[in-house]
Design a protein that fits this description.
Layout lengths: L1 H14 L3 H28 L3 H27 L6 H15 L1 H16 L7 E4 L2 E8 L3 E7 L8 E9 L2 H4 L2 E3 L7 E9 L5 H30 L13 E7 L2 E10 L4 H17 L16 H4 L7
Antiparallel strand pairs: 1-2, 1-5, 2-3, 3-4, 6-8, 7-8
Helix pairs in contact: 2-3, 3-4, 7-8
């Protein structure tokens, strides 16, 4: 046994291991665990959002691990004794550990400086769409629209989005500088319908509902043209003609307020339904199966 003890002692001396290193390592680990516990207690008392708590908990774990790695490294390896090297590694470790929070702060500065959107704007970023209701240092908050609800109306959900997403995704702003979007209403009539009368009918209905939009939109376009290269020449509603399998498709293209699109569509459609109901030579088309007898229904010159 004495020979074994002497052999182990000799091996430890050859490797350069000092028992005090174990004590210092244990003290460092315990102190870091204690400091992390105190920091988490403070965060849980100050922050209510569970997602923010979780992210700070993960980041504190990374920070504690890296600092512990550096401190323990200084104990066991003399090559890390330089203060400049230590501070350099510490800075790099903090940059990695706090990557998301630091990027969130950079995103917040970008939002304050460049203002791609502001509180009250309606935006889409990644798969999220909604109205901005709050902007903070680490996140911005939207009141969601769309999803399972049609016509871009509110779902009632509040979504918190990290600020760093503004650097990774395109941002679509529905209301910045120009408070209107283009909307289209498609109406399909049968081939036997008087499509010219139908087109004039749709044009009149669209103009009746949208005449107040055009003047306001022209003013906003002139204002937005000072900042962006916008070349809208015709802002009045227009009806396009096209042919599809089931009939003649007439498409009303018009300006609409993003927050009033569903209500405006409803008013236009109700007028269309009432107007078509009064015209005997107009019928809506829909997918169906039909047998066409050329001898009875075809043009005289083409009958066989």
């Amino acid at each position: 046994m004495e020979q074994i003890d002497e052999s182990l002692q000799s091996l430890i001396e050859d490797v350069g291991i000092d028992y005090s290193n174990f004590v210092e390592t244990a003290v460092i680990i315990l102190v870091l665990i204690f400091l992390r516990f105190i920091a988490l207690r403070f965060i849980y008392r100050s922050v209510e959002d569970s997602e923010t708590r979780y992210r700070w908990g993960k980041n504190l774990t990374y920070i504690a691990f890296f600092i512990g790695f550096l401190l323990v490294g200084r104990v066991w390896f003399e090559g890390v004794g330089s203060l400049a090297t230590f501070l350099g590694l510490l800075s790099a470790g903090l940059a990695i550990a706090l990557r998301d929070p630091v990027t969130d702060i950079a995103g917040w500065l970008f939002l304050i400086w460049r203002k791609p959107f502001d509180v009250g704007d309606r935006i889409q970023i990644a798969e999220f769409k909604g109205d901005i209701i709050d902007i903070r240092i680490f996140k911005f908050t939207i009141l969601e629209i769309g999803n399972w609800v049609h016509a871009d109306q509110s779902t009632g959900r509040v979504i918190h989005i990290p600020n760093h997403l503004v650097f990774r995704n395109a941002i679509a702003n529905y209301t910045s500088d120009f408070d209107f979007i283009w909307n289209e209403i498609v109406v399909v009539f049968t081939f036997e319908s008087n499509w010219k009368k139908a087109k004039k009918l749709l044009e009149k209905i669209a103009q009746d509902h949208l005449k107040d939009y055009v003047e306001d939109a022209e003013q906003q376009v002139r204002r937005a043209a000072k900042s962006y290269l916008i070349r809208y020449k015709n802002l009045t509603p227009i009806v396009y003609t096209d042919v599809v399998d089931s009939g003649i498709r007439l498409t009303i293209r018009h300006l609409s307020n993003p927050r009033k699109r569903r209500g405006l569509n409803q008013m236009i459609w109700e007028d269309i339904l009432e107007a078509v109901d009064k015209e005997p030579d107009l019928d809506f088309a829909y997918n169906t199966i039909r047998i066409f007898q050329n001898q009875l229904e075809g043009k005289e010159e083409l009958k066989e």
